[in-house]
Amino acid sequence: MACRQAQKVCGLQLSASYFRVETAGNVFVVSLAVADLVVAIYPYPLVLTSLFHNGWNLGYMHCQISGFLMGLSVIGSIFNITGIAINRYCYICHSLKYDKLYSDKNSFFYVILIWVLTFVAIVPNLFVGSLQYDARVYSCTFSQSVSSAYTIAVVFFHFLLPIAIVTFCYLRIWILVIQVRRRVKPDNKPKLKPHDLRNFITMFVVFVLFAVCWAPLNFIGLAVAVDPERITPRIPEWLFVSSYYMAYFNSCLNAIIYGLLNQNFRREYKRIIVTICTAKVFFQDSSNDAIDRMKSKPSPLITNNNLVKVDSV
């Protein structure tokens, strides 16, 4: 009896621990999704408007807001990806300390800290005057040629440094994964579970695609910052435009990655699609039934005529 109670207690503890792990990880994933959605709510519709009018006609204020939100999305994405990598690193490589580091309260605090740092990182653009309309991409965005020192700082702190941190975390995780596969990992450490490996691979692919999509634009910015007068005229317009849209297309890729690599996301996608299709069929059937009822229902004139005939008889 005592053994069974102990097993139940251990099972509840493991379930609670797993729930905390999933909650902490999901908080960062949701935060990353919010960063991806920021550009879709305001800046992208304004870019489409600019395309249709072949230029910016919405005024200075909208230009600054659009550029600010676009930068907020970019920096928020890389900071959240960094937070996810650190979270995965602590969970897999330092699992004994994970529950203390990533309690529910601490996890929400980390997410808030990420967004505070993101806001602080984007505010200097308003003082430097680097948010300008670029006719090549029909959008208000960060201008790489306004300040060389600021552009170098942006590339370093908003791309190179986070990429270095994420690379370190994932390299350490890959080393542990290889050790587990080769069975050379010490037995006194917790084992790596299959779902942990799947989640890690998903977020690793998110990181790799982010780095690949954003690297060309950042390296162009770094080259321009080193010598704006000589480098800027030598960069082909098609190269800048393709690297720009390649970078911002990254926001659309994360949902696809989740759907391809995560079974839970695939299940939810199917449920949403089925719900939408069912709702369309239901509304169509309801409207058809209403039309049929209207057709089969006798008109008031006919009913009144019939009543008159009956009364007259």
Automatic annotation (TrEMBL):
SUPFAM superfamilies with a match to the protein in the record: Family A G protein-coupled receptor-like
Any Gene Ontology biological process: adenylate cyclase-inhibiting G protein-coupled receptor signaling pathway
Membrane spanning residue stretches: 27-45, 65-86, 107-128, 148-178, 199-226, 238-261
Family stated for the protein in its record: Belongs to the G-protein coupled receptor 1 family.
Source species of the chain: Anolis carolinensis
GO cellular component: plasma membrane; receptor complex
Major subcellular site: membrane
Keyword check for Iron: no
Subcellular locations according to the entry: Cell membrane
Keyword flag Phosphoprotein: no
Name the record gives this protein: Melatonin receptor 1A
Annotated G-protein coupled receptors family 1 profile domain residues: 7-258
